[in-house]
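Hey,
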Amino acid sequence: MRKSINLLGILAGLGFGALSFLAIYSLGVLAYRDSAMPVLALVSVSDADPETETTAAALAAEEEPEIAKANTIDPAEGNDDGTSAAETVVLAKAETDPEPVAETDPETEAEPDTETDEVDGPYADLDDDAVIEIEPVPYPEDVTYHDAPEPTADEIAEITAKVAAIEAKLPALDYEAARHDPIHYPPLIETASSAECLACHKEIATHEPRKTSLAGVEAQQSLAWYQTLDTYSGPQADFHWRHLESDYAKEVMKLECNFCHKGNDLREESPDMMPTRAAFSALVTPEFTLRKMVNPSETCLMCHGSYPAEIMDMEGDWHELKVDLEYAEAPNGCLSCHAETYRTERHNVNYLNAAAIEEIARNGTSDSCYGCHGGRAWYRTSYPYARHPWPDMDDSEIPQWAVDRPTESKPEHQLSSAP
């Protein structure tokens, strides 16, 4: 008796499964009818059900007569011309496909659209030998730009003495003693010169990238991303060298090692556990972030943030926006607004050569500005630069984005005195 019940249950289950399959399959037929997918895929799974196959052929006849004709061929009999049913399906499918686009003859290839080709720039319509006279861009009144000052003779002598003292004690230092030297954390790190750092870390200035990558690609046969920029020339170079010693870095910047390496407590690596002050007394904006040897949001972000289009009530990327602002005689679209009108008090800090930056901007393209203001963006946010008041600035209403912005640079970045 129990075996009979089990057998009946199995048969009932099989019957229910078959009905479910037919229901799902019917829904699939209707779905395929209204979709853009070829009916061929539907027919290929219906060989065991003549009724469903007829329905599929009827559906195909409504949309693609040639495909329907192929689908109704008996696979066993084939076609009158000797081809099999499968071959006919393929041929019918090919007849319904669009004609392939012929390859363009290189000699008759149309010229690229200069309005949409972002790499062409403001010189796209000029001959290679065209002589261009850039329209003079005036400097704003009552604003003076200063390069970062060079060290004085007294400062050089002091740095030389500090380096000599470090080199004198090196032979007696083991790794742990050197690692915990006071120069590695505040307050000494705040005034340490690059020369003092390089007394021990000489490899930073001489290190070179691999000649061949781990994948076997030779450096001289490939381009790093920074080699594609107008501001870089020469072979691939080390990260630190590019920021400290490259021609362009020396021209527009004056970075010291402690610009990025602010120092940290090597025992705790926390700004709230410094050996020189009470615990948990760090500033609201501490010198460094927990367990970070470098705080990117206070260093890297300054030059590698995103383009702040929303602040300027602009929509889109700069390479799209500049098309309507630049032409051959005025190739720097940034100066359309920032030459005399908005945010003209800028770059006067001890890690930038403001005068050199302004000269480059007025005699080149906007790439020199965009490079540090979105063109080399490693972050999705932009740096909240200090909003220095500029001449004729309307301060009657502060924009929402500037409500919490400081009005001067951080003390450690301010120029001590103007030349």
